[in-house]
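Dear support,

Our group has been running a series of protein-ligand predictions, and this particular one with adenosine-5'-triphosphate is the one our PI (initials K.S.) wants archived with full inputs and outputs. We had some confusion internally about which version of the output was final, so please treat the block below as the authoritative record. The input we submitted was:
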Amino acid sequence: MSASIPRAARAQRGVVLFTLLALGCTITLLLPVAWMATMMVKPEAEMFARPTVWLFEPTLAHFEYVLEAGFLSSLATSLVVAGASTALVVLIGTPAAYAFARFEMWRRDDMFLFILATRMAPPVALVIPLYLIYAKVGLLDTHLGLILAYLTFNLSFYVWVLRSFCRDVPVELEEAALIEGYPRWQVLLKITLPMLRPGIVSSAVLSFIFAWNEFLYAFMLGGRTVKTLPVAIPTLITAQGVKWGEVAIVGISALLPVLLVVFTLQRYIVRGLTLGAVKG
Amino acid sequence: MATIQLDSVWKVYGAVEAVVDLSLTCPDGKMLALLGPSGCGKSSTLKMIAGVEEVTRGDILFDGRSVASLEPGERNLAMVFEDYALYPHLSVFENIAFPLRLRGFSQTEIDKRVRQALALLGLEQWSGQGVKALSGGAQQRVSIGRALVRDPELILFDEPLSHLDADQKVYLRTEIKRLQQESGLTSILVTHDQTEAIAMADQVAIMNGGVLQQIGTPQDLYAAPANVFVANFIGEPPINLLTGQISTAGAQMHVRGAGWSVAVDRAIAAQLSGALSGSEVILGIRPEHILVAQEGPDETSIGARFFYRETRGDVDVVLVDLESRDAAAPVRLAIETPGPMKIQQGDPAALRFPVERLLFFDAGSGRNVLPSLQA
Ligand SMILES: Nc1ncnc2c1ncn2[C@@H]1O[C@H](COP(=O)(O)OP(=O)(O)OP(=O)(O)O)[C@@H](O)[C@H]1O
Ligand SMILES: [Mg+2]
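Confirmed final output from the archive:
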């Protein structure tokens, strides 16, 4: 008995220490974001006052500028491009990954490596040829152009990751359902897809984030009428100086959709990312 | 219900011949066990019957009709898997209801049937739960419930007990057998465990390297094994095998090896020498058939020395070394005796091999050359 009390106390202290540590990390990470958030409504004059001014008269001037400068359309463009390319990736990539995992085909492993090879070249190396092709076929500065560009990038990543998820679905489950009389497409729909959901969601989210943050392709292949947020932000570096308040607003609004996606799908993402690690 | 017939079935994966020219029949309402070591093609055979693997050559017939062109779902059979193959995203109830949902049963009919299955297998209290939380035994009962719920003509069991604890194993073994007999379900059981096959099946087919070795009742396989492989595979502790030759000493014929000899009838000896491909014979005698006495040998018995005694509770298994000139490679035999036997290592022993219990195999082919002796 006497030995168990200190042990319990020690455990308790461990929990407290760990919580403090986690809290410390979180605050350190969030502080710049919070500071950026205050910048959204900080008057220009107090922006870089020393010491930092925490109490000030909030202003909406930055918001007005951002709206006038058409950043809403950039937000929409980013959403459309990242959203549509991710949707296409899932639509095309899921059956492809399944086929690579399950079916015998001619030179399957070679083809699979070839798919991954599209990711091995540095993006800069591909952007010039892609630019020339796009210029020929009229895809420059179009939504479709960017969607296709991101599709080619994300598809290889998605297929590569999802294939191992597909392999983890025991083939006996599908055989059981086939024997019970379900046609193949229903087996896929009712058994395989539900089991793949964590894998699909987490790889789709990573694809989305990649497309959302991408700069080089968005800048080279879009940039005039089709302007995603990462491309739009540098326009706030003007001849009169950097518009920090506006940068903060755009930055925060670029963060929000990603946060929203991650939080709503958190359940699947955590399962998806740890699936390979904890085999059960 | 159906009679299942395999007619010269082959399964070839690339360069691997998993099943070689397999022909066998499982009579209506009976349980047939496919028994063999790992990788001998048991699962491949089962998957071909189920229709999830193509038959490379040959034909499979249900009640005389070929099912080669039928999809797995059209064969009206159910399968129970080694790893249960339950749908992890569905509850116990929904797992069992799953085959019914496709067949357009009304919700009340589904309820009724699933409840029946749950009750039959003692699973009522888990009904609404996810399947992941259940013990292995309970999961396997759910999968048996899923198989039974739609009254299939045939149930295939692929090593259904191999991942279970010993007590669960015995319990579920009896349970499966009881359900199978009560409903008169034709079933095929795949296992690598001879105890399981013997306890459950009406007929046992023994396979090795994709080739059928023998099919028969457990008694047949035990008493008259077709070859050395079958003799070795059935029985625990395994059969003793001794290599020897036929020799004549005056009027008496003997089968003689290093440190042992057994007198045999002239008739048997004649049959033997006619059937053997060479001069060597492998003599088989089961541990429970050797008579052992704690004394020095006389002219009718074989001399040996005790090596070790292992008690099995009801019986003793003693290991003895035959007395031979070649002390470096002693011939060691296992003997099952009604114990307990007080022995010291090195004590003399006298062994008798009752001639009616002996099995004779051709040393070249391993074939049983006098199967009629025991049958
Ligand atoms: N899909 C496959 N592709 C290639 N070879 C296979 C395949 N399935 C099985 N084999 C091979 O065929 C042989 C028989 O396999 P099978 O699974 O039928 O054996 P088994 O008797 O069920 O063994 P176990 O007791 O290990 O389950 C093995 O050598 C195996 O490696
Ligand atoms: Mg197997």
